[in-house]
Write a structure and sequence with these properties.
Elements (H helix, E strand, L loop, with lengths): L1 H13 L7 H19 L4 H16 L17 H10 L2 H13 L3 H5 L3 H7 L2 H12 L4 H8 L6 H10 L6 H13 L1 H12 L2 H4 L11 H18 L4 H16 L3 H24 L4 H4 L2 H31 L18 H13 L6 H25 L4
Helix pairs in contact: 2-3, 3-11, 3-16, 4-16, 5-10, 5-15, 5-16, 7-18, 7-20, 8-9, 8-18, 9-10, 10-11, 10-20, 11-18, 12-18, 12-19, 14-15, 15-16, 19-20
Protein name: Sodium ion-translocating decarboxylase subunit beta
Membrane topology: Multi-pass membrane protein
Main location: membrane
């Protein structure tokens, strides 16, 4: 009988029920809410489902993120090893490879002025940088937080790792991916506030055809130019352009399919669950995290506004030929931000097709955010 009671007592002690804190319960509720948004409303489910599930796991069983050096047997938790790949910038770079292989750069090549809207959308990053400095964060921490404004999760993780801001990498990554998923909610009010009905109904001329030679040369030239100026951007820009070269050269179909499908989805699983697993109650429920989330939202709103405002200026300069709504796609959430531009435009004129026009600023935003990250690294002397 004593043996049975002891065994049952040990089993009870091992259950999570006796070890959960109120903070764990809060984070489990947040994880369930994220799962609801992803499954019920379709908000970037490929991102939110693994992130939310990683959040769920770590708050039920914290040792799933146990550092190998802290383990009695020298073996860390499963998601710890996934997370190491984030810290080493491996997974963010592979994500860029997949994005390049999946994305058509033709709209950007056909309309190079899209680069300007992509650049204007980076305004939110510098706004958040100044705000983070004012809130007491160090210069490197402020830079890592500010990059959230680009709505680019991989770049946020990459920069935080390079600037050795691993203590806040979790909140930064979760904020960046959360805002990427919430693009359809956050952007439309800003877009409508800054544009008129007449501007939203502007129909843009069809983009010119882009030759195969242009498509092949573009990733090569961008890699040479950008990486010569900012060599530290090579892991991101280089992988992005390599993936696109796979897509456009026409001789490596198997590599294109692997990078844009199997490899991409494997990396999303590893990155998403490991990012979610950084949100233990002890690490996430504190004042600094709330500041990071708030600054990320401010950066994202200002980034959207910057792209739309420049779109309005370009609309005037072009004699009303550019719909300012496409400027909001200058953030790096590919292709969600471009889809939002299309959706908002279609609300006012169902025959208006802005998607391909919006893809130009969208691709430019991906490149622009990587360039800003490289600039921060150059400023702080990080290689």
């Amino acid at each position: 009988m004593d043996y049975i009671l002891t065994t049952l007592g040990n089993l009870v002690q091992q259950t999570a029920f006796l070890n959960l804190t109120w903070g764990n319960l809060v984070m489990i509720a947040v994880a369930c809410f994220f799962l609801y948004l992803a499954i019920k409303h379709g908000f970037e489910p490929l991102l939110l489902v693994p992130i939310a599930f990683g959040m769920l796991l770590v708050n039920i069983y914290p040792d799933i993120m146990l550092h190998a050096e802290d383990a009695a047997n020298g073996t860390g938790g499963l998601l710890y090893y996934f997370y190491v790949l984030d810290e080493w910038s491996i997974l963010p770079s592979l994500i860029f490879l997949g994005v390049g292989a999946m994305t058509d750069f033709g709209p950007l090549i056909a309309n190079p002025t899209s680069f300007l809207m992509g650049a204007a959308a980076q305004f939110g990053i510098f706004t958040a940088y100044l705000g983070a400095m004012a809130m007491g964060f160090s210069d490197k921490a402020a830079a890592a937080i500010a990059i959230i404004g680009g709505a680019d999760g991989p770049t946020s993780i990459f920069l935080a790792g390079k600037l050795q801001q691993t203590a806040i990498l979790g909140p930064i990554a979760v904020a960046a991916y959360s805002y990427m998923a919430l693009v359809p909610i956050i952007q439309p009010p800003v877009m409508k506030l800054l544009t008129t009905d007449k501007e939203r109904k502007i129909k843009m001329e069809q983009l010119r055809p882009v030759s195969k030679l242009e498509r092949i040369l573009f990733p090569i030239i961008v890699t040479i130019v950008v990486c010569m100026i900012l060599p530290t951007t090579a892991p991101l820009v280089g992988m992005l352009m390599l993936g696109n070269l796979f897509r456009e050269c026409g001789v490596v179909r198997q590599l294109t399919e692997t990078a844009s499908n199997a490899l991409m989805y494997i990396v999303v699983i590893l990155l998403g669950t490991s990012v979610g697993a950084t949100t233990s109650a002890e690490a996430f429920l504190n004042l600094d995290t709330l500041k990071i989330v708030a600054l990320g939202l401010v950066a994202f709103i200002f980034g959207t506004a910057g792209g739309v405002v420049l779109g309005k200026i370009m609309c005037v300069v072009s004699g009303g030929k550019i719909n300012p709504l496409i400027g909001s796609a200058g953030v790096s959430a590919v292709p969600m931000a471009a889809r939002v531009s299309q959706k908002v435009g279609a609300e006012y004129d169902p025959t208006n097709f802005l998607l391909m026009h919006a893809m130009g600023p969208n691709v430019a935003g991906v490149i622009g955010t990587a360039v800003v990250a490289g600039t921060f690294m150059a400023i702080f002397g990080v290689m």
